[in-house]
Amino acid sequence: MFQHQVRNDKVKLIRENPCNPWLNIVMRIDVLTLFPEMFESPLGHSIIKRACEAGIVNIALTNIRDFAKGPHFKVDDKPYGGGPGMIMAPPPVFECYEHVCSLSPKKPKTIILTPQGSPFDHRKATELAAEDRLLFIAGRYEGFDERIRIGLDAEQISVGDYVLSGGELAAMVIIDAVIRLLPGALGDEDSAKDDSFSDSLLEYPQYTRPEDFRGMKVPDVLLSGNHAEIAKWRKEQAVERTKKQRPDLLD
Length: 251
Ligand code: ADE
Known about the structure:
Bound molecules: adenine
Order of helices and strands: EEEHEEEHEHEHEHHEEHH
Distance between the termini: 42 Å
Largest sheet: 7 strands, mixed
CATH superfamily of the largest domain: SPOUT methyltransferase, trefoil knot domain
């Protein structure tokens, strides 16, 4: 399912698609990272796994360190002007990027994960889901040399106002949110439409069996079989919930 590029440029397939892995797919996603293994479990289950196996998306993981030179394959260095920590240096990132770009003719939409980026939300997920090819650069250390963003024409995205230890988890959050919006990724096409945020409202409350659980009953309207009443109730509940939990969404 995932492709791993290794230092000698040979491609190791973890789980191969039965057909040519890059033909007739809806989207190709490349991730440039120092920790490709981090992605395997979170992206190797359920909806994402099925989308990969159905050929809706292909995810290729490439280790930036495989493009580093010198005895220690260094990818970071001290910041000019001083300051704490180390930052990601341009050469291995550029070489890794150029190698990955050469694997497919379509120019990727390139995204750098950083807390300095613009906030990720449902609208951005929808925008990214319309692309053919996405390339994420997940960094570690104190951030990136500015020339990486400029030279690779990359958009900066943040998944929230807090600092993670690296961009990997942020990349996985975005990849998950984008893949579920790809045509055919969800078994039931309606389930993405009703998701929270798809119409600027949070999702209405849901219930399943049993009808009475420890004295907590399913609202009568949901048992009524009256579809118009159910739709009206759900809309009211969604508005109520949004007012209470996320009034900012209604502005
Ligand atoms: N890397 C570290 N923190 C991050 C965040 N909040 N969003 C995206 N990338 C990050």
